[in-house]
Amino acid sequence: MSDFLQLSGKTFLVQGVANKKSVAWIIARSLEEQGARVVYAVRSEARKKTLEALLGDRPVFVCDVEQEGACDQLAASIATAGLAPLHGLVHSIAFANYSDGFKTFAETKRADFLQATSISAFSLVELTRAFKPHLTQDASVVTIGISSLLVTPDNYGYMGPIKAALESCARFLAKSLSADTAIRVNVLGSGPLKTSASAGIPGYLESYLYAEKLTFRKRALDTQEVANIAMFLLSPRSSGINGTTLVVDAGLGSNYFDKDVIRLAMRTENAKPSQ
């Protein structure tokens, strides 16, 4: 087996597997196909139970990042189990409370915003800090962000600013860790994907189909394509990339004025009854 990415025999922590459609699972499976060993962290015992059939006898640990000290406990447990040092971390977790249905950004509740920030952004800081003593000197940390922080989709609400916070945290972590290590921290800015997590966003299907029309190829991003880039960022082949967001969106962000989409939009506008 070719080992161009030099991942074989290395150990990585992947945090955030929820089911077989998860970005985290596709990344983990891809790493294993390259000969790497993957250690898994999930949010609860209940989630661990539901993943038994998928993960089999792989090492799985519970870490509820919303709880203070959870990342430290996870790092200690993995070290005690003899699974360290790790060559990299994958942070693929996010949470937003949409239980009350769609609300405008101005209606965001303080509790919801702070909870989502803690889980979706600051957990990257806590996870990296906890594992720093258990990482190789040149380890790679990868977190999953979004392809654009400039767009303002109504149905994404307060998660847009929180993903911006995640991206900023990654840059500051990269700078901070460079003081005494060669550990890198990068963001994989993914375009819209078809996952169970995204299905929980109000109106996501329409947004997903619209985004597909804006890609250059008129075909939506595949989760495996995101996993491929994640593996690259985790590998020594990306050693020159640090504190960066690598966008993977099949051209979506450069195609706002696609002629076919404009034609459809104007057709709809012209079809409206006159006032």
Helical segment count? 9
Strand order of the largest sheet: 3-2-1-4-5-6-7
CATH topology assignment: Rossmann fold
Shape: globular
Percent of sequence in beta strands: 15-25%
Counted beta strands? 7
Order of helices and strands: EHEHHEHEHEHEHHEH
Q: Average pLDDT across residues?
A: 94
CATH architecture: 3-Layer(aba) Sandwich
**Number of domain units:** 1
CATH level 4 superfamily: NAD(P)-binding Rossmann-like Domain
Give keywords.
alpha/beta, Rossmann fold, seven-stranded parallel beta sheet, 9 helices
Account of the protein in words:
- This protein has 275 residues and is α/β, with parallel strands linked by helices.
- The protein has a single domain (11-269), classed as 3-Layer(aba) Sandwich (Rossmann fold).
- The protein is 39% helix and 16% strand.
- The chain is built from 9 helices and 7 strands.
- It has helices at 23-33, 45-50, 52-55, 70-80, 110-131, 159-177, 204-214, 223-234, 259-270; strands at 11-15, 37-42, 60-62, 86-91, 135-146, 184-190, 245-248.
- It has a 7-stranded parallel sheet, sandwiched between helices.
- α1 (23-33) crosses α8 (223-234), α4 packs parallel to α5 (110-131) and α5 (110-131) packs parallel to α6 (159-177).
- The longest helix has 22 residues, at 110-131.
Task: Please give a quick description of this structure.
Helices cover 39% and strands 16% of the residues.
